Amino acid sequence: MDNNMIRQLEEGLYTFPIPLPNNPLRELNGYLIVGENEAVMIDTGFAMDPCREAVYGALESLGISPEKLTVVLTHLHSDHTGLAGELHEKGARIIAGKTESWWIHNIRSDEVTAGFQESITRFGLEQDGIHYYDNPGYKYASQEILELETVEEGDRIEIGSFSLEVVDLPGHTPGLIGLYCRERGCLFGSDHILDKITPNIGYWTEGFDSLGVYLQMLEKARSMKLKRVYSAHRNVVEDPERRIGELVGHHDHRLKEVLEIVGQGHKTVREIAARMHWDLRAKDWEAFPKAQKWFACSEAMAHLEYLHLRGRLKRTLVEGVYHYASA
């Protein structure tokens, strides 16, 4: 890796880009916190050669061997966990939250595969020829069975001059964690709060109100009175209060958009998602890549379920497919 790609953000804190080929996110912000004889890295990138080159190049440039490395996996998505298995095999310690560790262990299991495949049916996506195997979270996940150490909210990781407190921030995934440095007023927030782009808040399982939980966690982050958020993608968030307000406003607009579409008559998740506005270079729904159809339907479903759980929409199951209508 070109040493010029590594930037020092604070004393002992470095960032470097991890490319995400053929992905609209483009890059993952790699973070390394370096102590006297050890280091902490937050997330890893995909199990792909461009990600390997970036991660191992950064470690080499800063003189860090895997045996001296602790990797914190903030959540299960493969752009955050893909290299964890091989880093562990090289001697790194791997940490994740308890909820997310279950998903990381089981993301390729028959149980999870069947659950997501059922969601494809419920969304009405089978007509697009979509399978769970098309999901990047499956395709680029770590191939190894990870030996994870688990942490809970309030646990601390001490590294150099940083005291990192584990905070639960579910919503984007069922068990996403962040690392809060109270003394510095900063949060390593992963995909919880992003600048310029909005985190995907999608449907996971029956009974998990992902959007409702996410909005609660935004208020939790607001209560921290943060000075900055070190996000997983795009820029450092220098005005967290402003950005949290924008994210709440975005989802308020989305909910109104969904209500307006459903108000035009009974529709499936797929039909609703196809009518929603997406910042994607595709002329129509048919031109959407398969993975993006999945993400669009999952996000639409999260908003539909938020409204359904609050009595504003009715949900019916017709031949295995969910239909929504005004309550």
TrEMBL record:
SUPFAM superfamilies: Metallo-hydrolase/oxidoreductase (SSF56281). Residues 27-233 form the Metallo-beta-lactamase domain. It comes from the Bacteria. Pfam families: Lactamase_B. Signal peptide: none annotated. PANTHER family: ENDORIBONUCLEASE LACTB2, METALLO-BETA-LACTAMASE SUPERFAMILY POTEIN. This is Glyoxylase, beta-lactamase superfamily II.
